[in-house]
Structures are given as structure tokens and as C-alpha cells.
Amino acid sequence: MSDRVTGGLEALLAAFAIGFALKIYFAKPKAPHDVRYPPGPTPLPILGNALAVDVNTPWLTYKAWGSKYGDIVYSRLFGQDNIVINSEKIARDLLEHRSHNYSDRPEIATNELFGVDFNTAFMRYGGRWRLQRKFLHQSFREDVVDNFRPMQVTKSHELVLNLLEYPLDYPKHFDAHSGSVIMSAVYSYDAARRNDHMVGRAALALDIILKEMRPEVAAVFTAFPFLLCLPSWLPGMRLKRVSPLARQLAIENLENPFAHTERGLAAGSISSCMVADHLLELDDSDGDSAWQKKAIKESASTAFGAGTETTASVMMNFILVMILHPHIQEKAHDLVKSVVGTKRLPTFQDRASLPYVDAILRECLRWHPVLPLSIMHAAVESDVCEGYYIPKGAIITPNVWAMCHNEEKYPNASEFNPDRFLNPDGTLTDDTVSVVWGFGRRICPGRHLAEASLWSAMVCLLAVFKFSKAKDETGSEIEIEPRWHGGITVRPMPFPCSITPRNADMDITALQHLISVSV
């Protein structure tokens, strides 16, 4: 092909791309005459406000916009309407009180690329989503999760054993703990205490997907889907280079644990769990069992992924703040010791007597929320809120970070202070920081299971270990400069620390004995 023809084709493609982008940019519908769009930063042609957003910490950008423009901010990301909600009150008004209009999700082009288009959390609102949501709700509603408590206690004990034997591997232990809890609850799969293959593959998949699928990056490919046709070796196409492995892992995590439960059911060796219970209830009288079985498999994989990442991330927050605030750690330990003593480990029966541990848990959720922007919603139809126009199909971004750092509700919000969740008489307040679990019909169905797992793990660690700064070869403490991984979820990056048993005589045999008298 001649250079002239090649150049002509390149010019034609460039003209098509520019024309397509301009068409999207100028497709913004006009607001009705009696309302207007929410205020917000001035967008650039084609790019919108994309360059003004810090892709590593977009919640901070959105919070700064909120300080300037108000609780509802209008922005554009490559031609897409993006309504940022910085107020808990407005978020509840829209996403809960008007949930019929705001329970949808935006179309994200990269979901299929990464093989997670089946995921309940990212799925568009409709019959398929409702069926999956039903299975999740029935399995993890508040009056059911107490059945998982013995298993959760066992997994907390395994975590304590892992930390005693290999304290420097604490991030891996938190992943193993959270993954083993959800694998047991969903699939009746008893994961190995360390280095379980199935849990490890899931952790690898989540590490790739949650880092690469950040909304502000995915927005480029959603607005301009033809970019997904470009070869992966081009600059800026990292998503296409990592997506094959992510898709392969997503399929593994969808199929393999489910197959384990099916085999166990056939052999009669499986105990009650989400998948087994729903498979046993399948009714083929209407010929719909295949569709329901598919929904069970997909919702189970969703629970597995969501439960693993969030719990491990909160535990990382917990260790970090215990080290940064030793007086809080010592107060919590002393309270646990006064209630439990030293001859056994804490159990759920002790929870009512230890409100301070619950206060620490809530503050860990609030201080650095794992999902700082929740998961985006979408407007089914045009709407008006506080006099501002919200167009049909607009992305609705709840800025959970801003809600959790609202100075009116949480004075000195950047400080870690569990006392903000305690009444003067020492009882817990009514504030459960529920915004961190989402809103309306899209609220996390596994929140009760996750919260119980976190409490059990935290109280056991407080009873056994002391967490402090690591020391260098001269004996000087190594200062911690907290940094966080960015993505859909956020967790602290590993930091140097010292994890030592409070009892100097504690070894693996002594700990195993302590565990044996605690169950």
C-alpha cells in the first residue's frame, strides 16, 4: 500500500475519531427551562473535566469541588454526565428514597474486557440482577449470619496462629483470613491456613481488577469504545495487556469453587453454605433451574470477590492505626483483658461488654473508607434534586470519603478517634457508618457477615499481640509514612511493623492450648 493511501486512511481514521468525540461532547441534553444543571468546574472540549481529576485520589478532587460548588457537583468525563454527591443526606434522598430511579449502574466497557460483566455489584438493574441479589440477601441477611459465628471464630484463631508464626507476612495473612471466611460461607470450602491455591488465585484476580478498573480510567473506554479495538502494544493500552490474565482468573474464580461445592453435594460431604443451600432448593417444575443455577454461581463469585478485598483492607487499616495510636491500642487491650482475662480468647459472647472494640471498628471503616467512591449508580430517568437537573443516564458518584470526613458530623475528621462513636455513658451511638456499605437496593448484602468477621479478628488480635513500630539495626524506631493503593478499593500499602505476643512465654503450643479452651 502506498504512503499516500496509508496517510489517507490515517487521516480518515483521525477525522472519524475526532468527529465521534465531538458528537459525544456536544450531545449534552438541554435542561428544562425551569431548572439548571448543578454547578461544577468548567469542562474542556472532548476531555470534559478528566484532566482536573487526580486519578489516584479522585475522592479528594471531588471533595474539593464540593467545598467550592456545593454538595451536588456536575462534571463531565469524556462526554459522560457525572453527578458527584458529597452529602450523606442527598445521597440517601436519591439512592434510597428514590431507589426506583437510581439503582442502575452505568455501562462500563471494561467489565466485559476483564470478564466481570456477570458480577452482581457491577451489573445493570434488571431481572438478572434481582435474582442474584435475592440469593445474596437470603444467605447473608442479619438474622442468618449468626450461623457463621463458629466458623468466623475458627478463622480468627487461624489468623492469630499465622501472625505468631510469620508476623512479617501480615498482609498475606489478612488476605488468607478474609478469603477463607467467605470461601467457607459461600462454598463450604475449608481453605488451608496459609498459601491456599484457590484463595491465592482469587487474591491475584482482585489485585489486577481493582487496580486497573478505576472509574476515571474506564470512562475513557466507555466514552470511546473503539479504543478497545486498538492493539495492546500501543502506549496507553495497559488495560488490554493485563485483561487476558484477569479474564482467565475471573473464569477460574467463577467455576472452580462452585464445582467444589457441587462435588461435595454429590458425595454428601458438604455442609450448609450459600451455594449448597440454594442448589438444594432449586425447583425445575417451571423449567427455569438452569437460569437459577447460573445466577447462584454468579452471585456466589460476586460475594467471594467483594468479601475478600474489603475485609482484608479494613484489617490493614486496623493494624496501621493501632501502631500510630498506641494509647488507643493499650486502652482496648486493657478492656479486653478486664472482660476476658488471660486464660481464653474473646468470643462473640463478650461483644456486648466490649463496646470500645466496636467503636474502633467503626472508626476504621470511617477514617479511611475502603470504597471511597462506593460504586457508581446511574439515573434511569431524568430527575430534579434541590432544584438541580439530573439527566437520564447520568453517572451518580457517591463520595463516601466526603461523607465520612464531614466536619459537622465528625469534628477533626482526619483524626482517628473511636470515642466519637461512644455516648457519655460508654455505650455505642446509633451511628454505624452505614454509608461505607453503599446505599438503597445496592447496599452490600454481605455487610453483616463482614462486620462480624472484622470484630472477631480485631478482638482476638488485641487480646494476644502488641503492635508497634519496627526498629532498624541501631534500635531506632522506623517511622511510618502511610500510603495507600489506589483503585476501586483502597488499602494501606505494607509498612514496617513489629507484631509480638504480649505474653513473653507465648509460643505455638501455648497459643494452641489457649485456642482449645476458647471454643
What does this structure look like?
With 519 residues, the protein is α+β, with helices and mostly antiparallel strands. It has one domain: Orthogonal Bundle (Cytochrome p450). Helices cover 50% and strands 7% of the residues. It has helices at residues 3-25, 58-69, 88-95, 99-102, 110-113, 127-140, 149-165, 170-187, 197-212, 215-223, 238-267, 274-280, 289-324, 326-340, 355-367, 400-404, 447-464, 508-516; strands spanning 72-77, 80-85, 377-378, 383-385, 388-390, 395-398, 465-469, 484-485, 491-492, 497-501. Strands 1-2-6-3 form a 4-stranded mixed beta sheet. Strands 4-5 form a two-stranded antiparallel sheet. A hairpin with a 2-residue loop joins strand 4 (383-385) and strand 5 (388-390).
Question: How is this structure best summarized?
Answer:
With 519 residues, the chain is α+β, with helices and mostly antiparallel strands. Helices cover 50% and strands 7% of the residues.
Number of strands: 10
Instruction: Please state the average pLDDT score.
Output: 89
Q: Could you name the CATH class?
A: Mainly Alpha
Distance between the termini: 77 Å
Q: At the third CATH level, what is the topology name?
A: Cytochrome p450
Determine the strand fraction and express it as a percent band. 5-15%
**Helical region count?**
18
Helix content: 40-55%
CATH architecture: Orthogonal Bundle
Q: Label the overall shape.
A: globular
**What's the SSE pattern?**
HHEEHHHHHHHHHHHHHEEEEHHEEEEH
